[in-house]
Amino acid sequence: MNADYKRYLELVEMHMVDILPDVDSKSLTLYESMKYSLVAGGKRLRPCLVMAACEFAGGNIQTALPYACAIEYVHTYSLIHDDLPCMDDDDYRRGRLTNHKVYGEDMATLAGDGLLTTAFEAMTKDMFLHFDNEKELKKRIRAMYDIAKGAGCSGMLAGQVADVENEGKPGSPEMLDYIHINKTAAMIIAALRAGAHIGGADDKVLADLTSYGEDLGLAFQIVDDILDIVGDAKELGKETGMDEKRGKLTYPSIYGLDASYKRVDELTEHALSVMAPYYDNAEFFNDLVQELASRTK
Amino acid sequence: MNADYKRYLELVEMHMVDILPDVDSKSLTLYESMKYSLVAGGKRLRPCLVMAACEFAGGNIQTALPYACAIEYVHTYSLIHDDLPCMDDDDYRRGRLTNHKVYGEDMATLAGDGLLTTAFEAMTKDMFLHFDNEKELKKRIRAMYDIAKGAGCSGMLAGQVADVENEGKPGSPEMLDYIHINKTAAMIIAALRAGAHIGGADDKVLADLTSYGEDLGLAFQIVDDILDIVGDAKELGKETGMDEKRGKLTYPSIYGLDASYKRVDELTEHALSVMAPYYDNAEFFNDLVQELASRTK
Q1: In this complex, do B29 and A161 lie within 8 Å of one another by their Cβ atoms?
Q2: Does A101 reach chain B within 8 Å, measured CB to CB?
Q3: With a CB-CB cutoff of 8 Å, which residues 213-242 of chain B face chain A?
Q4: Strand, helix or coil at A20?
């Protein structure tokens, strides 16, 4: 793992539960169920992207922390709801029982709702800390808007719906792109843009990070699809072969495995070329997309 | 119905779907399921409170519309998730099939998620319209914060969790208060405070509206509990007697019906006394709480 990634990850882990609301003994179960899924680990890709983009744009990563955590809250809510029996009906996630298997479906639904709401509550709360600095305030509004849009009905949720509705149907390349761009890439792009805003990025940096994020997001989803076929269940912490079982529309299901590997390589090359003008400053981003591609090898 | 209420309601109804994201043919079902529950009517109490509080504070109600609609989106999401089989398992709401009975549980879960996210997306988007007016921007941040907090884990969701966890248990008056204040009053207070912020209320007006909102919210919930016992199912658009069937902790279940009527009267009196110093300017608020109390008579 890249040294910067480690540094971001450490900070993110240390502050992940900071934005959880105060505990009240009467709603302790809500708090615990939210925390259960939050501390379940994972790569923390999205929050680390927020931190990296902030630093890349010249900002202080400490100031990006609330947004980094908020985006992981949004991501975690989407996983909890996605695992519900009425959705993907998964029993395990990252090697642990899914939220509803531990807390019940009612509490898992509310835990997801709580994480999503808390994300916005925390971002808005952070704005009050910068209430007397108009410039800083505007950066945060921009960051929150990108996160809301990425998570919303023209982003992640649009992808989720198309994903659910196309299960077991013969898929088109166009629909596959739509699902991948919205379900996965949208939040990765949102993370990069949010961090870039907080860091004070100019339009060029913002555009380049957006373009890099599209490549990274698509590559990330295709790698995920490949690993569901060739990966090791134990290593991945979840059952494999599930996409085929569910009749999910994936890159390998349309184009085959070979073409999938090739597409990941193409996306990696393109991502590297976008960041090339930044030389060593883009080391984090270069390492990240290359490590991702190497996971399938 | 009070003439002002009618005026607010008309505006709210006219603009309710304005903040829905652009339709995309590939995620049309998400759009339709969100809209299905949004246009289902109801009293639109919360958005009308936003409008009323804005005007009461001296603001232009047009500027409060995005926040009025956003709070109805939040309310609607909470109803959709609350109706799910894993929660209250309701088949009807306002005389129509509940969202999941029409679109399935998966889509209903996503529709709720979509409404919640869209509410925040729309409020943030509105901020861009006031980007060059720091004073207006800050009003909107304050409004959004109150809405997020009211809907979140120290507000509505805390109440939902306590409500779910206390089904069938012998309840305490303390727990009943906790559930009512959080589950119902929190969002009513949030609506009033959000509108007051947008309207530019001073601290005194904000405090009085908050106090009024607490009375109104508690009275509203107790009236709801009473009507579940003595009300007419057809008129209410939902089955009655459900609280007892589910072993819900309600005001009548702890104190009996007579004490419940009395408590509504006390809350009404207190609400009227809070608004008394405003004389005719508070007509909307006075009419509202009196009409509410009269529903049980």
Answers
A1: yes
A2: no
A3: none
A4: coil
Tokens of B135: 């004073």
Residue owning tokens 């609400």: B271
Question: What three-state secondary structure class fits A97?
Answer: strand
The DSSP secondary-structure symbol of B130 reads T
pLDDT of residue A40: 84
Rounded to whole angstroms, how far apart are CA atoms A94 and A40? 7
Query: Coil, strand, or helix at residue B153?
Result: coil
As a whole number of angstroms, the distance between CA B51 and CA B235 comes to 27
Is the pLDDT assigned to residue A41 strictly greater than 80?
A: no
Residue of A182, A167, A145 whose CA lies nearest to A253: A167
Q: Which residue has the higher pLDDT, A234 or A39?
A: A39
- In order, the DSSP letters of A107-157 are HHHHHHHHHHHHHHHHHHHHHHTTTT-HHHHHHHHHHHHHHHHHHSTTTHH
CA-to-CA separations, B62 to B190, B198, B204, B243, in angstroms, rounded: 18, 10, 23, 38
The backbone region for B232, taken as left when phi is positive above 0, alpha when psi lies in -120 to 50, beta otherwise, is beta
Q: What pLDDT band is residue A236 in, cutting at 50, 70 and 90?
A: confident
DSSP3 helix / strand / coil % (chain B, rounded to 5): 75, 0, 25
Q: CA of A271 to nearest chain B CA: how many angstroms apart?
A: 27
DSSP-assigned states of every residue in B21-34: PPP-GGGHHHHHHH
CB contact under 8 A, A26 and B178: yes
Please compute the mean of the pLDDT values over residues A267-282 and round it to a whole number: 97
Distance of CA A13 to the CA centre of its chain: 15
d(CA B107, CA A160): 10
Residue A296, pLDDT score: 80
- The CA-atom distances, in angstroms, between A210 and each of A41, B66, B133 are 26, 28, 28
Domain residue spans of chain B: 3-294
Residue A120: closest CA among B116, B72, B195: B116
Q: What are the chain A neighbours of B116 within 8 Å (beta carbons)?
A: 113, 116-117
Helix (H, G, I), strand (E, B) or coil at B211: helix
Three-state secondary structure call for residue B97: strand
* 3-class SS of residue A210: helix
Q: Summarize pLDDT for B114-146 with one digit per residue, the tens.
A: 999 999 999 999 999 999 999 999 999 999 999
Q: What percentage of chain B exceeds 90 in pLDDT?
A: 83
Within the 13-42 window of chain B, which residues sit less than 8 Å (CB to CB) from chain A? 20-22, 24, 26-27, 29-31, 34
Q: Which residue of A has its CA nearest to B153?
A: A114
Give me the interface pTM, i.e. the ipTM.
Answer: 0.96
The domain made up of B3-294 has a fold known as Farnesyl Diphosphate Synthase (1.10.600)
pLDDT in tens, B203-259: 999 999 999 999 999 999 999 999 999 988 777 777 788 888 888 889 999 999 999
Report the C-alpha gap between A160 and A114 in whole angstroms.
19
d(CA A89, CA A80): 10
